[in-house]
């Protein structure tokens, strides 16, 4: 690993661990191994959003050309958000692409991701299905995102109606995650979700 | 006919109308002696009232560099600034020198800020702390005076700037390299870059890429899109007109760089080509080379460009496109190119509307595609004509000059059919109304005369020469009329 990259990550590591601001916003970074090329991030879902109270794990890979090129970041925790793929966790965020600047840090990235959770940009989507739901059925989107937060990110709020629907599809013999995706994609319409699972 | 008579009639119909300069006339004259492939007179309109007339020159790399430098120097001396900054302003401002000077004189600060070349004073940031601060990028500590930066005040160590330039150049970015500061959009001028970057290979690469970037951003310059061709076209005006590269012979539209597409404009042809690519499967079944004779049902293969077919068995004359009697295609009542829309379509169901939309698209696509194929077939006809002329010349039946008119006819046919092909995307996207009716009328006229010309060219050796030349004249006039009315200039 290039010298600059490692030196930078070492310093940033301290920065994220120490910062008070960071503690308040609940962001965290930790090493996965001791080479500084592969990190694990965590952000807390921002208040007054369907992600509130959830803890979202991130995979952070540091390229050799860091910080001249951006880190490669994706969500490990499954999440329902227009700019994040519900399948792969890939993120659509400008500073992780062409708007990256060498003076940005992991802290900037984590805070930007937290801001993204608070303010989605459905017109520049990563997940077209979610983005469409966000625009056309916002209330269903909000409840779906909340349901995913409680299921995958340890979110505190449950939605009994949605949980029951998942259970009824499971009882029909469908696998749990497939059932959840089918319902989320089909505005929680049981019949259409069942057809979706079969097709 | 005596030899002198023949020579007198040799002048081709296109050059009759030219009022070109003496130099060009000399060139044309010279062409008669060696050019046996392409008639340059037909392909290069010279009259200024010709709708396809377009002034351009072919530049070598050095000429283009000189041209850019002249524009940069003009701005430098006018606004008293460094060449590096002037170049940046011109590039960002699409080389509108006059406009830049005016805006600079009105409000210098506003122009510089809007162009991202400098930062207003109150927004300056100094991120460094202490007498031996750490570089915000590499975290290494250096004495304060080692740090470098642009007008925004973001300071970094020279080593990091160097690395930054290296990675940006590797990604092909040159004129668009930005400061490394967070959310900072300030552009790096080349004198700053050169003061940091010492690697001579990279400096070289930067300068080459930079030149390409500048040319691509200049509205009056365009790289020839021909394969392995490095010349640059310099146009007087940035228009969607036809350019023929004198080096590699490729022809293209100056504005968008793809194949010339008059009368259709750049955006519409792009839309059309994308649609054709997307719908290629739907349209595939059309690509038939054989059809049955509508009269006696014998299978007929289309082996030449002309759409006026004659069944070899029953001698029925019919149209390849619509399989109708060719008699109904007599120029006045040519209906074959016009799509008849269902007048009641707005009240039909969604399904019927979708079917109608597909039908309409296929109608235009079929004609577009068919003309493209005819062009290929006529290319073969031209080769056959050339080799037959060769035989005749070898057998002392006249000279190359005597048979030149056949070549001219074939070249003109190609040009007319090419325009005809590109009338179909134009018509497809046209709104209903009087203008479309006029367009379709002229398109039908051109369609009829192109097929007449094609028919005669295929039978060139038995067609009376005067008759052929007359037909050439009519076809080209129809083409010019259509372009005059519909080519956006
Ligand atoms: Zn540095
Ligand atoms: Zn800056
Ligand atoms: Zn060329
Ligand atoms: Zn064009
Ligand atoms: Zn027949
Ligand atoms: Zn027809």
From TrEMBL, chain A:
Cited SMART domains: UBA (SM00165), UBCc (SM00212)
An annotated Gene Ontology molecular function: transferase activity
Keywords: ATP-binding, Nucleotide-binding, Transferase, Ubl conjugation pathway
Pfam family, one: UQ_con
Keyword ATP-binding: yes
Active site as annotated: 92
Domain UBA: 161-199
UBC core domain: residues covered: 4-154
Coiled coil: none
Origin superkingdom: Eukaryota
Protein family per UniProt: Belongs to the ubiquitin-conjugating enzyme family.
Protein name: E2 ubiquitin-conjugating enzyme
Annotated source species: Littorina saxatilis
Automatic annotation (TrEMBL), chain B:
Location of the region described as Disordered in the Swiss-Prot/TrEMBL record: 1-48
Gene Ontology MF, one: ubiquitin protein ligase activity
Cited InterPro entries: Ariadne (IPR045840), BRcat_RBR_TRIAD1 (IPR047555), E3_UB_ligase_RBR (IPR031127), IBR_dom (IPR002867), Rcat_RBR_TRIAD1 (IPR047556), TRIAD_supradom (IPR044066), Znf_RING/FYVE/PHD (IPR013083)
Coiled-coil positions: 443-485
Acidic residues composition-biased segments: 18-29
Highest taxon in the source lineage: Eukaryota
CDD domains, alphabetized: BRcat_RBR_TRIAD1, Rcat_RBR_TRIAD1, RING-HC_RBR_TRIAD1
Keywords, comma-separated and alphabetical: Coiled coil, Metal-binding, Nucleus, Repeat, Transferase, Ubl conjugation pathway, Zinc, Zinc-finger
Ranges of compositional bias, category Basic and acidic residues: 1-10
PANTHER family: RBR FAMILY RING FINGER AND IBR DOMAIN-CONTAINING
Family that this chain belongs to: Belongs to the RBR family. Ariadne subfamily.
Name of the featured protein: RBR-type E3 ubiquitin transferase
Organism: Littorina saxatilis
